[in-house]
Specification:
By secondary structure, this protein is an alpha/beta fold. Helix 1 (16-26) packs across helix 6 (169-193). The protein has a single domain, classed as Flavodoxin domain (Rossmann fold, 3-Layer(aba) Sandwich). Strand 3 and strand 4 form a beta hairpin. Strands 1, 2, 3, 4, 5 and 6 form a six-stranded mixed beta sheet that branches. The chain starts with a strand and ends with a helix. The protein contains seven helices and six strands; from the N terminus they run βαβααββαβαβαα. The longest helix is centred in the last third of the chain and has 25 residues, at 169-193. The radius of gyration is 17 Å and the shape is globular.
């Protein structure tokens, strides 16, 4: 069974971001996919402090709720990450999670390479596109495959704090198309790989730092 993890970066209870991420997960066939959901609400996720302890420890040493979430990200075949747009940017607590996850996997060998997924962002009027692009940059630098959907997977909701993402019929259609494509890509990749392993520990980090040193 394939594993897909959905993460909501909103700290609001039953907010629009949570609704859209949960909706995306609900579209996965339960006999083929194990869909798990994590909300950052109530979680203590500190920003990366640049200590570089992860190089030797092979894990993030900041004491908070990061590691259990990171382990679920590593185990998943697919990652759907949602965020509200805060002044056209991703929620800062979510970016703390993603910054640290990307840096830790660089040194631990717990690659995100070959996973499949994509972002969902939501705002009252505008700003979703910039937050969407910010998340898309994270997916690309972590070597995650992002299927298309015919349009960006963004939602319009939240005027005066309303929880009304379910009314954005067009946004829901694009999310449904994205999830369908995502499911097909995950299954196709697994069938093609037939259990073959991705490059082992140190591959990405070695190539990255060697290239950096050569450039100077």
């Amino acid at each position: 069974m394939f594993k897909v993890l959905g993460i909501s970066g909103s700290l609001r209870e039953s907010g629009n971001t949570e609704f859209l991420v949960r909706h995306a997960l609900s579209l996965l066939h339960p006999q083929e996919f194990q869909a798990d959901f994590i909300s950052l609400r109530g979680k203590d996720i500190k920003p990366c402090n640049g200590c570089y302890n992860c190089v030797e420890a092979k894990r993030c040493t900041i004491p908070d709720d990061f590691d259990p979430i990171y382990q679920k990200m590593v185990e998943a075949d697919g990652l759907i990450i949602g965020s509200p747009a805060y002044y056209a940017s991703v929620h800062p607590q979510l970016m703390s999670l993603l910054d640290r996850a990307g840096f830790v996997r660089l040194w631990t060998g717990d690659y995100f390479s070959g996973k499949v997924g994509g972002p969902i962002t939501v705002a009252r009027r505008t700003g979703q596109d910039l937050a969407f692009a910010q998340l898309l940059m994270w997916y690309f630098i972590n070597d995650i495959i992002v299927p298309g959907s015919g349009y960006w997977t963004v939602g319009l909701a939240g005027s005066r704090g309303a929880r009304d993402a379910s009314k954005d019929e067009e946004g829901l259609r694009h999310i449904e198309r994205f999830v369908g494509n995502m499911a097909r890509v995950i299954k196709a990749l697994k069938a093609a790989n037939s259990g073959s392993a991705l490059p082992q520990e140190g591959y990405f980090a070695t190539r990255y730092w060697k290239a950096r040193d050569e450039i100077g």
